[in-house]
Design goal:
Strand order of the largest sheet: 1-2-5-6-7
Number of strands: 7
Radius of gyration: 20 Å
Number of domains: 1
Structural class: mainly beta
Order of helices and strands: EEEEEEE
Low-confidence stretches: none
Strand content: 35-45%
Shape: elongated
Helix content: under 10%
Distance between the termini: 49 Å
Mean pLDDT: 83
Largest sheet: 5 strands, antiparallel
């Protein structure tokens, strides 16, 4: 299952003095259809192999946000939230034969663990 379209779009703003920076990322995965239902015999899309359930996945968007603060010359602090809106991945009840997706979703394409929040610091000395 490959999407017809997927993209990542990141935009970043940094203040003129470099003390604050914010970055917003939009990850998009287009709709997916099982190769069995494609109608293309070259990739296995024959009528006898067509699925009747869980053969199509709607498109999904994920949004990530990162904030960075330069507290002092040698100290910076970062806050990061991936999958900011805690979007649930699509569930594929019969995912056993879909490209090693044994977890009822496709973890290589979707955030299967939900929102991920991290805090980091950089100290130079």
């Amino acid at each position: 299952m490959l999407p017809k379209w997927s993209h990542g779009l990141r935009t970043t703003y940094t203040t003129g003095d470099g003390i604050f920076s914010t970055s917003f990322n939009w990850r998009y995965v287009g709709s997916l259809t099982s190769a069995d239902n494609s109608g293309d015999e070259a990739i296995g899309g024959t009528p006898d192999r067509a699925r009747t359930t869980f053969y199509h996945i709607a498109p999904a968007s994920y949004f990530d946000l990162a904030l960075s603060f330069a507290i002092a010359k040698d100290f910076s602090l970062r806050f990061i939230a991936n999958n900011l809106l805690d979007k649930t991945p699509p569930i594929l009840a019969n995912s056993y034969d879909i490209s090693l997706a044994r977890s009822n979703t496709i973890p290589a394409r979707y955030d299967s663990l939900g929102r991920n929040i991290a805090v980091g610091a950089t100290i130079r000395f």
